[in-house]
Amino acid sequence: MTAVLYVAVGGALGSVARYLMGSALATQAVQWGLRFPVGTFAVNLIGCLFIGLVAGLADKHALIAADARLLLVTGVLGGYTTFSSFGLETVMLLKGGNIGLALAYVLGSVVLGVALVALGWWLTGPAA
């Protein structure tokens, strides 16, 4: 039950951080006249940097306890962006020498993910 609490608290914090950061950057992008989804892009990249830092500190230097890693990685960063988890899992596959599997994971996640979003959109029928 303690693990669930760590994930829940961290997830709430990460989701709020994603909303605040993404909204602020999206507003700024509009002011700059950009059509690129800067908010989501930046949130995903920031999440990737931080999950790499936390995983590195935990795995290489044993500086982060299991409970803290659960709070930070699964909770905060999972709530902030699951793209960071995707990035970490890809790096772990590459680190393990599974280049083909990593490539399949990346291409499958991106291509199938976009295709399934399009399918879901299409399944909702024509615009009202």
UniProtKB/TrEMBL annotation:
GO CC terms: plasma membrane
Family to which the UniProt record says this protein belongs: Belongs to the fluoride channel Fluc/FEX (TC 1.A.43) family.
Principal location class: membrane
Coiled-coil regions listed: none
Transmembrane spans: 36-58, 70-88, 100-123
GO molecular function, one term: fluoride channel activity
UniProt-annotated location(s): Cell membrane
General function of this protein: Fluoride-specific ion channel. Important for reducing fluoride concentration in the cell, thus reducing its toxicity.
Sorted UniProt keywords: Cell inner membrane, Cell membrane, Ion channel, Ion transport, Membrane, Metal-binding, Sodium, Transmembrane, Transmembrane helix, Transport
Keyword Heme recorded: no
Binding site for Na(+): G78, T81
Topological type in the membrane: Multi-pass membrane protein
UniProt-recorded name of the protein: Fluoride-specific ion channel FluC
Pfam families registered for this protein in UniProt: CRCB
Electron transport recorded as keyword: no
Summary of activators and inhibitors of this protein: Na(+) is not transported, but it plays an essential structural role and its presence is essential for fluoride channel function.
GO biological process, one term: cellular detoxification of fluoride
Catalysed transformations (reactions): fluoride(in) = fluoride(out)
InterPro entries: FluC
Organism, as annotated: Paracidovorax wautersii
